[in-house]
TrEMBL record:
This is RING-type domain-containing protein. It comes from Lates calcarifer (Barramundi). Residues 16-56 form the RING-type domain. The keyword Zinc applies. Residues 127-219 form a coiled coil. The keyword Metal-binding applies. Residues 85-126 form the B box-type domain. Pfam families: zf-B_box (PF00643), zf-RING_UBOX (PF13445). Keywords: Coiled coil, Metal-binding, Zinc, Zinc-finger. It comes from the Eukaryota. One of its GO terms (molecular function) is zinc ion binding. Signal peptide: none annotated.
């Protein structure tokens, strides 16, 4: 007989307060609270204290005793839960699913076979249907693999094109920089030549004006000298 009665105890009642999972090797403290052995040790190590994680009461024992009754309950609960999950039972009739309804595309039990829901439907053994589905999935998988391979080839080409575009862009960038460098050099040389020509022109004109000013000064001096002579 099972130690667990369906409505008497729940999974929540069998959960460790620290990890919130069903107890594994439960130990009991003097305050009557139970914990997984590893959970309690880890808690004490992290908190650096031997207090109960629930009521904070200090434990006098470094190695608390195993809670054998609770351990047995938990083991029985886990065993029953594993059995329930491993059995494929019909949700309507709690019978084993032995057939596959081809019309509804779902597994059914022998009671479903004669029910109104599946009247005049076609069925196949569930193993046969599973094999057929497996085959179809395999074919779909192969098709997807081929498509993936094809897409990967396209991606490689795209990557190569993208790399080529980058190389071309860098090459064109270098050419533009070189052309503008030459243009800047030409403009600088042109500027220097024009400035030199301007300075030369300025110098020539200044020299010409200087000579004219000197000639004018001499003429003024002569005129003044002539006036002075005539006055006396």
């Amino acid at each position: 007989h099972s130690l667990l009665q369906k409505d008497s105890i729940s999974e929540e009642d069998l959960c460790c307060p620290v990890c919130q999972e069903v107890f594994r090797d439960p130990v009991v403290l003097s305050c009557s609270h139970s914990f997984c052995k590893d959970c309690l040790k880890r808690w004490w190590r992290e908190k650096q204290t031997q207090d109960c994680p629930v009521c904070k009461r200090r434990s006098s024992k470094v190695d608390p005793p195993c809670n054998l009754v609770l351990k047995k309950l938990c083991e029985s609960f886990l065993q029953e839960r594993d059995q329930r999950s491993s059995e494929d039972l019909c949700s309507l009739h709690s019978e084993k699913l032995k057939l596959f309804c081809l019309d509804h595309q779902q597994p059914v039990c022998l009671v479903c076979l004669h029910s109104v829901t599946h009247k005049n439907h076609s069925f196949s053994p569930i193993d046969e249907a599973a094999e057929q589905h497996k085959k179809e999935l395999q074919e779909t998988l192969e098709s997807l693999k081929k498509k993936l391979k094809s897409l990967e080839k396209v991606k490689v080409k795209f990557d190569q094109t993208a790399d080529h575009i980058k190389v071309q862009a860098r090459h064109t960038e270098r050419q533009i920089k070189e052309q503008f460098k030459k243009l800047h050099q030409f403009l600088e040389e042109e500027e220097e030549a024009r400035m030199a020509a301007l300075r030369e022109e300025e110098e020539q004109k200044s020299q010409m004006m200087k000579e004219k000013m000197e000639a004018l000064s001499r003429e003024i001096t002569l005129t003044l000298s002539s006036l002075t002579t005539r006055s006396f």
